[in-house]
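HOLO CASE FILE
Compound: 2-phosphoglycolic acid
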Amino acid sequence: MRRSYVVGNWKMNGDGSSLSEARSIAEAASRHPEVDVAICPPFTLIERMARALPTLAVGGQDCHPAPSGAHTGSVAAAMLAEAGAKLVILGHSERREGFGESDELVRRKVEAALAANLGVILCVGEPLSVREEGRAEAYVLAQLAGSLPYALLAEPSRVAIAYEPIWAIGTGLTPSLEDIAAMHAAVRGALGDAGEEMAILYGGSVNAENAAQILSLDDVDGALVGGASLKAASFAAIIAAAN
Ligand code: PGA
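Model generated. Tokens follow.
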């Protein structure tokens, strides 16, 4: 049985005053022990949040593939782990698009994160033009093949895949339930035996209102949530819906 997994991606939001919101999220999570809950705040909050809220899994939103070196502005996977992170989001479309990250770079980051004993949320998702041309499934499966290290298929429980259509992120738009179900089934199928254990999350405009329907779909094991994870009230409702 795969456990439900709900992850909040705070993106470039939050400061010290946000720890009280995170505390309320940790309390909500403790009322649903059957759901795994994580928050990925900006780098600057990881250590403080992990110390203040030991029951909450705290994660990063990116890491560098190298363990150390002359990479100004970057953070290594082991540095995240030392700060108290238990996981890291990799290959988010805002990194792929905004920072030109290729599948190959994302794959090396996944390898680095696993070597540092972090869990990984590996994001894939198509732009609107690709969806409109009817090529979304082929596009997402190619991204998955390019960014998932082959060796990982032997250790599937350490990685969750997040299907996030780019046009649904932060827009209030979501694919139809049928389209979400079809894409998740396609990803599950492409993962082969490993797919039985690997969680596949949906992300893109998940909120307190639509979470229950999306999370009730067979191959949807959880959600990667941006905007609605910033407030405990809406995020708690999504955690409850993941039951
Ligand atoms: P959103 O973001 O929930 O604000 O659409 C999701 C994400 O980017 O992970």
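CASE NOTES: The pocket of 2-phosphoglycolic acid is lined by residues 9, 164, 169-170, 203-206, 224-228 (CB under 6 Å). The domain at 4-242 is CATH 3.20.20.70 (TIM Barrel).
CLOSED: yes
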